[in-house]
């Protein structure tokens, strides 16, 4: 099995499991009176992620079937740094999902995006803060204000709703 195909199978399998976890995790979100509720977007993203993961798995299996059986293309194992990054990302998303319902969307998301930007190599703290704050404000304005998608509320959301932005 070639190294690239093996890596594709590993990553696609992890993301397929992650998408199932998100689907299960959002199953207890409250049902909205509107057509689009708090569960809609995570569910859509999880279904897309799961579907794309399955496509990568099928593609990899088809590539393996076309490879000659006697050809040994094992190559080196997957890089430990990549495995560590994948594990930390999956654990980070799981922690984020667990905390966002009590901490609220804004504070939890700023912290999550900041930590992940720093972990993946951005060492300028002003850029880490910029990525996190601009990203969260963009998502909040687009989905929370314009599309009126309810986010998990925390202290920041309560302050914004009192001044008319929530």
Q: What are the salient characteristics of this protein?
A:
mainly alpha, 0% strand, 166 residues
Can you describe what's shown?
There is one protein chain. The protein has 166 residues and is an all-alpha fold. The chain is 72% helix and 0% strand. Helix 1 runs antiparallel to helix 2 (40-66), helix 3 runs antiparallel to helix 4 (105-119) and helix 4 (105-119) packs antiparallel against helix 5 (125-146). The longest helix is centred in the N-terminal third of the chain and has 27 residues, at 40-66. The radius of gyration is 20 Å and the shape is globular.
In a few lines, what is going on in this structure?
It is built from 6 helices and no strands.
DSSP helix fraction: over 70%
Shape: globular
String of helices and strands = HHHHHH
Radius of gyration: 20 Å
Summarize the biggest pleated sheet.
none
CA distance, first residue to last residue: 52 Å
Uncertain segments are: none
Number of strands: 0
Strand content: under 5%
- Structural class, by secondary structure, is mainly alpha
Number of helices: 6
Mean pLDDT: 83
């Amino acid at each position: 099995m070639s190294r690239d195909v093996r890596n594709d199978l590993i990553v696609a399998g992890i993301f397929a499991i992650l998408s199932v976890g998100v689907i299960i995790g959002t199953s207890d979100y409250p049902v909205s009176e509107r057509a689009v509720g708090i569960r809609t977007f995570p569910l859509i993203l999880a279904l897309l992620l799961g579907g794309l993961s399955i496509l990568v798995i099928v593609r990899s299996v088809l590539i393996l079937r076309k490879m000659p059986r006697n050809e040994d293309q094992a190559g080196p194992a997957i890089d430990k740094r990549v495995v560590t990054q994948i594990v930390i990302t999956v654990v980070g998303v799981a922690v984020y999902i667990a905390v966002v319902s009590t901490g609220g969307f804004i504070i939890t998301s700023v912290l999550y995006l900041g930590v992940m930007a720093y972990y993946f190599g951005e060492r300028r703290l002003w850029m880490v803060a910029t990525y996190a704050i601009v990203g969260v404000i963009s998502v909040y304005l687009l989905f929370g204000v314009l599309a009126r998608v309810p986010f998990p509320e925390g202290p920041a959301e309560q302050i914004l709703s009192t001044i008319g932005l929530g």
